[in-house]
Every structure is written in structure tokens, then in C-alpha cells.
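C-alpha cells please, single chain.
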Amino acid sequence: MTIALGTIPFGTTVDEPTSFAILDRFVDAGGTIIDTADNYPFWLDGATGDESETTIGRWLASRRNRDQVVISTKVGGRPTVPGDRTLGSAEGLSAAAVRAAMEGSLRRLGVDGVDVYWAHIEDRSVPLEETVAVFGELVREGRARQLGASNHATWRLDRARALAAARGLTPYTHVQLRHSYLRPRPGVRLPEGGHVQVSEETLDYVRSEGLALWVYTSLLAGAYARKPLPEHYDHPGTTRRLAVLREVADELGATPNQVVLAWLRAQDVVPIVGVSSLAQLDELLAEVKLEPAQIARLDAPA
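Here you go.
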């Protein structure tokens, strides 16, 4: 199953029993990828950033199924000042910060190593060579198996990969960015701090280099189903795309959410989906297959 389970609310707005039930259902249905970070969800009142990893760690310990799942976590965006709800005091990507963060993540998750370890945000205050080196060391030590860059500019990703290649280190092979069927207006500044939107250049780069692309906010936080679209999606292209999306959904007897996920998977993109109930998860687990003609209609320019 080529979707990843996003776990931002686990242990906070989604309590532990419900989180465990969602994880169980996901794995029982054939899901394997569980995506978290060392700072989820630090921005909520009363949260520390430990909650998501800690909840997953307790679930792994109780189910004893570490070898059945892919654990993905991230470093770089955890506040260093208690109570900070911004990225202003983020830990960053220095060698010392990355090593300390990895120790914390492994402790909370209760594992010896993670399958994909991500640089969560850019840190241009640290030489890229330093970050590339420490990530490569973590792979050599067996603490990380594969590496990814999240919310990085394409040129920075390319430079990091070149540095790794020149030094004989494991490069970033995974990319995580914001992406969905609907696109925001060109040039708009997203209100969510730190989010980086997929661009045509990104898509060209990852396909040319054979990189794995994982995307978050793939369902626009419920806007395809019930919530109003954010203002920055208000443009003529959205109107046309929504009309075609609903037509295809009606043809397939599917929901718009299911069609969006099928459209992403058809491009070899891994959508990260977050849910707060089993009912939401069951909808997203449904396998919907698009015909080539339907994909062409969905992709047709306005």
C-alpha cells in the first residue's frame, strides 16, 4: 500500500487508545509506512514535541512488530526554548543537534534505528557539508537506513547530494514537500510557516534522479470533503480541477479524497495522510484505480 500514515496528532488531540487502533487498522490493511518527527506537535498548547514519537514507541513495544513497519522521523524543527510555538528556536541541523535529536528519537520510539531519517527544515546557518557528513555517519552506524530532505529548495537538495557523492557518503534519496491535486496561486506565500510547495522543477528533478517523493497536506486538511478551501487556492485553475475531480469521483463511485490519493499514487508519489478516526482511515485505505483517460482529464490544462 503506497500511502504513509501521518501521526502529528497522536498522543495529543488523538488519544493513545485511538492512536493504537488507527495504527492497528493501518497495518492490518497492508500499510507499512509510519511518518512522524521529533517535534510533533510542539505548536499545541501543553505539548512538548515528544508526543507523536512516544505514542508510536509505546505501540511498537506493545505489538512487537518493528520488522513489519517503516519508521520515518525527522530532525531540525524541534524548539530549544520550552514553550516556543514557532521555528525561531529550532534545533537546526548542526552535527551536534542532529546527533542529540537522533538519540532522543530512538529513545522515544524504542528502536535501534529508523528506516528514513529526514532533515525536516533547512538550516542555512550550518555549512551544508557538516549536515551531509553527520547524516552519512548515522547511516554508517546503522541508526538510519535511508535519508531524506523535507522542505528544502531543489538547488539545496542537489548540492547536498553532490557533496555526499563526492565524499562517498549516503545521499538524500527521499524528498518530502507539500503537494496535492489542487495547487495554490503561483507565487503565493503559504500561511503555514516552513511549508515548501512542490514545483514543476521539483517534479522534474525527482523523476530524473529516481528519488522517492512523499507529500504532506495531500488532502488539504479536509478541504476536498467538508472544509472551505484556503484563500490561496482561489483561482480559475481550482474551479476547473474541482469540476473534473468530482466528475471522475462520480464515475468511479468514489470520494474526491480517494481520487486525489489515486492520482498521486499513479505518479509514484507517496501521499502522507493523517486521520483522527477509524472511519476517516477506512475511506483513505480504499483502493481506487484510475484509467489512463481519467488521469489525462485530471491533468488537462485549464
